[in-house]
Amino acid sequence: MMKCLYLVSVVFHVAAGCELVKKTAVEEVTVFTGESVVLPCVCTDIQNKPQGLKWAFYRNNHAQEIYPKQTGHYRNRVKLVSNNSPGNLSLLISHLTEEDQGNYRCFVQADSRDLRLSVKGRRKISTHWRKTDTKPPSKKPQSKTTHSPPASSSTTLEQERT
Ligand SMILES: *[C@@H]1O[C@H](CO)[C@@H](O)[C@H](O)[C@H]1NC(C)=O
């Protein structure tokens, strides 16, 4: 049985090269500004080195190649994080801004895979942290009134936009 499976898989590679995992599903990824993200894209066989890999970014019906050609504001911000697995085509994007929000597509040969990236401002999460954060009473910051109340109006705006 194992031998048979192995043979099938060898024949398959010769014929098809890299077939992407979950190529029909759109994966949703949410991150915060300033962070980095790994957009997953892998061949069914992680040892398979694919030909003609390309990543593109889509926003407002405009397509932009971001890998291997790093264009626009993606220059020097993207790289592959294969970790010695030639079939791992996942793309690392660092220093995210809200401009990076949109759709991403990984292309290999005839296959492609879609991801949707949401980039959120940091304000919302720091507001939540402040609620649960218990500050040690000994540590008293000398500035009493410098930190303004959380901008609740802009937080609401952000939620409405999404
Ligand atoms: C591909 O690489 C990324 C980044 O190193 C890692 O998080 C992910 O688990 C890898 N995927 C597979 C299927 O090995």
From TrEMBL:
<dbReference type="GO" id="GO:0009897">
    <property type="term" value="C:external side of plasma membrane"/>
</dbReference>
<dbReference type="InterPro" id="IPR003599">
    <property type="entry name" value="Ig_sub"/>
</dbReference>
<dbReference type="GO" id="GO:0031295">
    <property type="term" value="P:T cell costimulation"/>
</dbReference>
<dbReference type="GO" id="GO:0042130">
    <property type="term" value="P:negative regulation of T cell proliferation"/>
</dbReference>
<keyword id="KW-0325">Glycoprotein</keyword>
<feature type="domain" description="Ig-like">
    <location>
        <begin position="19"/>
        <end position="118"/>
    </location>
</feature>
<protein>
    <submittedName>
        <fullName>Neogenin-like isoform X7</fullName>
    </submittedName>
</protein>
<feature type="compositionally biased region" description="Low complexity">
    <location>
        <begin position="143"/>
        <end position="156"/>
    </location>
</feature>
<feature type="signal peptide">
    <location>
        <begin position="1"/>
        <end position="17"/>
    </location>
</feature>
<keyword id="KW-0812">Transmembrane</keyword>
<dbReference type="InterPro" id="IPR051713">
    <property type="entry name" value="T-cell_Activation_Regulation"/>
</dbReference>
<dbReference type="InterPro" id="IPR007110">
    <property type="entry name" value="Ig-like_dom"/>
</dbReference>
<keyword id="KW-0472">Membrane</keyword>
<dbReference type="Pfam" id="PF07686">
    <property type="entry name" value="V-set"/>
</dbReference>
<keyword id="KW-1015">Disulfide bond</keyword>
<dbReference type="GO" id="GO:0007166">
    <property type="term" value="P:cell surface receptor signaling pathway"/>
</dbReference>
<keyword id="KW-0393">Immunoglobulin domain</keyword>
<keyword id="KW-0675">Receptor</keyword>
<dbReference type="InterPro" id="IPR013106">
    <property type="entry name" value="Ig_V-set"/>
</dbReference>
<keyword id="KW-1003">Cell membrane</keyword>
<dbReference type="GO" id="GO:0042102">
    <property type="term" value="P:positive regulation of T cell proliferation"/>
</dbReference>
<dbReference type="InterPro" id="IPR013783">
    <property type="entry name" value="Ig-like_fold"/>
</dbReference>
<feature type="region of interest" description="Disordered">
    <location>
        <begin position="121"/>
        <end position="162"/>
    </location>
</feature>
<dbReference type="GO" id="GO:0006955">
    <property type="term" value="P:immune response"/>
</dbReference>
<keyword id="KW-0732">Signal</keyword>
<dbReference type="InterPro" id="IPR036179">
    <property type="entry name" value="Ig-like_dom_sf"/>
</dbReference>
<dbReference type="GO" id="GO:0071222">
    <property type="term" value="P:cellular response to lipopolysaccharide"/>
</dbReference>
<keyword id="KW-1133">Transmembrane helix</keyword>
